[in-house]
Design brief:
Layout (H helix, E strand, L loop, with lengths): L7 E7 L10 H13 L7 H5 L1 H6 L5 H12 L4 E7 L10 H15 L4 E5 L5 H9 L15 H16 L9 H15 L3
Parallel strand pairs: 1-2, 2-3
Helix pairs in contact: 1-4, 4-5, 5-6, 7-8
Length: about 190
């Protein structure tokens, strides 16, 4: 919808249990910076400053990546960041704790042009961290677990729409039904 609008930037990150590279806080920040940077006509000084780390073979700190992402965001009237599956960021090695602490620091550095959406299954450490977040932005919490039936209907509708277009539209009805039931069942409301 906003692909042609240079005043809006969208970036996303998906934590996934099956890919350890997608469970790293530093890689998340780098990816978000890269995605937003690709929409900018210029390169912020904070991004240019990261080159020293690349040249020396070192890694910037999480705080430096937070600052760089915040500086990259300041170049747009509206930025939307989606972080999906926070609960799949591992608890071991304090990864999730570091992530949640980092979000709190990052939000204090950001301006009101940032709009964020986080998704997660219900996990006590995540709930506590988000309850403790202090920032000047409006926050709305949605608990979809109480709307499991509606979520499954939405998933089924998406699957039906996908099965209605080529090449799936040529599949036999019994195969489409089996695929739909398996995917809705395995989606577990996600």
């Amino acid at each position: 919808m906003h692909q042609e609008n240079p005043e809006v930037a969208i970036a996303y990150w998906y934590f996934t249990f099956s890919d350890t590279a997608k469970q790293n806080v530093s890689k998340m920040y780098r990816s978000l910076i890269r995605q937003l940077l690709s929409r900018r006509p210029d390169t912020p000084e904070a991004v240019k400053a990261l080159r020293q780390y690349q040249e020396s073979g070192q890694d910037p700190s999480t705080a430096q990546l937070e600052d760089t992402l915040a500086a990259t965001i300041r170049g747009f009237p509206n930025v939307y960041i989606i972080i999906d599956a926070l609960d799949e960021c591992p608890i071991g090695n304090n990864q999730r704790e570091n992530l949640l602490r980092s979000f709190s620091c990052f939000l204090r550095k950001c301006s009101p042009n940032l709009h964020m959406l986080w998704t997660s299954r219900s996990e006590s450490d995540i709930e506590v961290a988000f309850d403790d977040l202090t920032h000047p932005f409006t926050r709305v919490n949605f608990d979809l677990s109480s709307r499991q039936h509606a979520v499954n209907l939405g998933i089924a509708r998406h699957i039906d729409n996908t099965l209605a277009i080529p090449p799936c539209d040529r599949w036999p009805q019994n195969i489409k039904k089996e695929v739909r039931e398996a995917l809705v069942g395995k989606a577990d409301g996600m």
